Amino acid sequence: MTTFGLIHGAWHGAWCWERVVPSLERRGARVVAPDLPGMGQDKTPLSGITLAVWARSVADLVEQQSEPVVLVGHSRGGIVISQAIAVDGESRRAS
Description:
Layout: E1 3-7, H1 20-26, E2 30-32, H2 51-63, E3 69-73, H3 76-94
Parallel strand pairs: 1-2, 1-3
Helix pairs in contact: 2-3
């Protein structure tokens, strides 16, 4: 089974994937579509949000999964997932 991590773009939340998630799940995929910190339903204060915070949240999400994750980023989500891959790689080298 493939696990997809759907990362929303600027001014969005996980809600932007509401039509995509059921379609992937019907095809047997597992889907995780979080609200990034400070976005959507997440109440993290915006004053503390940086690209690094978003990237760490995505890297943590990937690390919590039991199998590899295909990350899909919409708009700014593409920047976030690129940074998350770098953060995850640094964590693995430090271990």
